[in-house]
Design a protein that fits this description.
CATH class: Alpha Beta
Strand order of the largest sheet: 3-4-6-9-10-11-12-13
Number of strands: 13
Mean pLDDT: 93
Radius of gyration: 19 Å
CATH architecture: Alpha-Beta Barrel
Number of domains: 1
Low-confidence stretches: none
Largest sheet: 8 strands, parallel, barrel
Helix content: 25-40%
C-alpha cells in the first residue's frame, strides 16, 4: 500500500513525501519585484514545515506585464541573485523549490492602463471587461523566447525546476479556451492548434535549460464552460502530447469561477465535509490513467484518509495544497505525527489581502 510519506522522484528531483505546496500568490515581494525578508521568511517556514516541494507564486517573464502586486520578476538577469537567496534558504531544510512562470493578460486588472495586455484574440474578458490586443505570430514567437530565457534564469538561480502556468484563466489558459481563442490560423481551432503556443514555449524552455532540469505544467482539467471552454477530453489530448514531448509532471487544477456550478478553487464548505474535498481528483484520475508521467492534483486536499484512498485507487501520485499551508506552514509535520489532525483552515478565504496573503489567524 502506498502512503503519503513515501519517498519518490519527479525526474531527477527527489521527494521525501507526496505533499507539494501549490503556487500561491503571497504578495510579499518588494514593489520593484525583488525579494524581501518577509518573502524569504515565508518560504523558510514552509521548508521547515515538512512539505517536499514548494512551487512559488508566479513570476512574470515580461517587464511590462506584471499581473499581480508584489510578485518577484524573472524578466531580467538582475533577479538571479534574488533567486539564489530564496533557494539557499529553502535548501537548508531538505526541501525542493520550483519557480512558476505566468503571463496574466486580461485576467488581471492591475495597472491595466500601463500594461501591454495581449491575448489569443481581442475578446473582452467576462469579469474584468478588458479587451486584450490580439497576438501576432511574431508575438507568439517572442513569448516562447521570453519564457525560455526566464526558465534559464530560474535554473541559474538554483531552483529545482520550473512550472509553466496554463490554468486559472491566465493568458495560456485563454489560448486553450474557445471563448477567448477565436483564431483561424494555426494557433486556433482544434485543441492541437490552441495548445500550440504551450508546446512551443515548452520546447524553448527545454532547449535552454537542458534535458535534466524538471519542467512542469499546471493546467485546468476543464474550464467548466461547456463548448465555450477547455473540456476534459481536450485536456487529456494536451497532457498526453506534453508527456510524449518529455514534460516531467503535470499539476491538474480547474477554472476558478466561469460557472457557478463548477468545483471552485475557493470552495468554502470543505473543512468538515470530506465528500467535497479533493474536488478535482475525479477528473485528474482520468487524465493520470492516460499518461506515463507523474500527476499532481490540487484543490481541497485536506484529509489524510481521503488523499490516501485517492493515492491507492487511482494513478495520481502527488497532492498539492495552498490555503491550508497559508494557515499552517508546518501542517505536513503535524500530519506526520498525527494523521487524524484537522487543519485550522476553514476555507474562509480571508487570507487574501493586498497587504500580503496571510491567514487571518496569523496576522
Amino acid at each position: 500500500m502506498k502512503t503519503l510519506f513515501d519517498e519518490s522522484n519527479i525526474g531527477k528531483l527527489k521527494l521525501k513525501n507526496r505533499f507539494i505546496r501549490s503556487a500561491t500568490h503571497l504578495s510579499l515581494a518588494e514593489k520593484d519585484c525583488h525579494t524581501s525578508e518577509k518573502l524569504l521568511n515565508a518560504y523558510e517556514d514552509l521548508a521547515q514545515g515538512g512539505v517536499s516541494v514548494i512551487i512559488t507564486g508566479f513570476s512574470h517573464a515580461f517587464a511590462e506585464e506584471q499581473p499581480a502586486v508584489k510578485m518577484i520578476g524573472a524578466y531580467d538577469d538582475k533577479f538571479i541573485p534574488d533567486f539564489k537567496k530564496i533557494t539557499e534558504v529553502v535548501h537548508k531544510h531538505d526541501c525542493n523549490i520550483i519557480m512558476q512562470l505566468a503571463y496574466g493578460g486580461s485576467q488581471s486588472k492591475l495597472l491595466k492602463a500601463k500594461r501591454k495586455i495581449m491575448g489569443p484574440s481581442a475578446v473582452e474578458h467576462i469579469f474584468t471587461g478588458i479587451k486584450p490586443i490580439e497576438m501576432t505570430k511574431k508575438d507568439f514567437k517572442a513569448f516562447s523566447e521570453k519564457f525560455g530565457d526566464a526558465a534559464l534564469r530560474v535554473k541559474k538561480g538554483g531552483f529545482d525546476g520550473v512550472q509553466l502556468h496554463c490554468a486559472h484563466g491566465y493568458m495560456l489558459s485563454q489560448c486553450l479556451s474557445p471563448y477567448h481563442n477565436r483564431r483561424a490560423d494555426e494557433y486556433g481551432g482544434p485543441i492541437e492548434n490552441r495548445a500550440r503556443i504551450i508546446f512551443e514555449t515548452y520546447e524553448n524552455m527545454r532547449k535552454k535549460v537542458g534535458d535534466d532540469f524538471p519542467i512542469l505544467v499546471k493546467i485546468n482539467c476543464s474550464d467548466f464552460m461547456g463548448e465555450d471552454g477547455l473540456q476534459l477530453e481536450e485536456c487529456k489530448v494536451l497532457c498526453k502530447k506534453l508527456a510524449q514531448m518529455g514534460l516531467d509532471a503535470i499539476e491538474i487544477s480547474g477554472n476558478v469561477a466561469y460557472n457557478e456550478n463548477s468545483p471552485l478553487i475557493f470552495e468554502k464548505k470543505i473543512s468538515r465535509d470530506k465528500s467535497r474535498q479533493s474536488y478535482f481528483s475525479k477528473y485528474a484520475a482520468e487524465i493520470a490513467a492516460e499518461i506515463d508521467i507523474p500527476l499532481i492534483v490540487v484543490g481541497g486536499n485536506r484529509s489524510i484518509d481521503v488523499m490516501t484512498d485517492i493515492l491507492n485507487s487511482t494513478d495520481i501520485s502527488y497532492f498539492s495544497l495552498s490555503r491550508t499551508l497559508l494557515s499552517e506552514p508546518d501542517l505536513i509535520n503535524k500530519w506526520k505525527e498525527d494523521e487524524n489532525y484537522n487543519p485550522k483552515c476553514v476555507a474562509c478565504n480571508k487570507c487574501w489581502s493586498l497587504k500580503g496573503n496571510i491567514c487571518i489567524l496569523n496576522r
